[in-house]
Amino acid sequence: MAAARAGVLGVRWLRRTAWNVAPLGTRTASHITKDMLPGPYPKTPEERAAAAKKYNMRVEDYEPYPDDGMGYGDYPKLPDRSLQERDPWYDWDHSDLRLNWGEPLHWDLDMYIRNRVDTSPTPVSWDVMCKHLFGFVAFMLFMFWVGEKYPTYQPVCRHHFSYDLGFLCALG
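The chain above was modelled as a monomer; its predicted structure follows.
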């Protein structure tokens, strides 16, 4: 009983001291501010124009995600293209991500950054790549079969010594 009472008093003391140490009006700088969050889904042309201005887009380029209850709100639906496809010689504000200041980010930006998914077209078509891969695998399987059927090492047998040096009994 006394130990439980001491524990409760210790927790209360810790709360009081922590309350006095930590200021209440602070926040970490990594949080998203209120004006960065998407607003409600635009229903009128005036709301669409205001949302396009909020995201630094033209009204004719602005298209929000469909209002299907997923919580996208008025966030613009950007094309599903990776940042790898953007011009590497352009003077970007953030050259590593190839982004400019104030530019709206893709909803799945973590998937489309340069070291993840690359949506640019491949220089070789998929059927040619598959033919090369399966041809190489078939060739290697054939070579393994040939290596099993015709071994290249000499057969091994027991050593024969012409002289009795005294250690033949140790060899068995």
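The chain has a mean pLDDT of 81.
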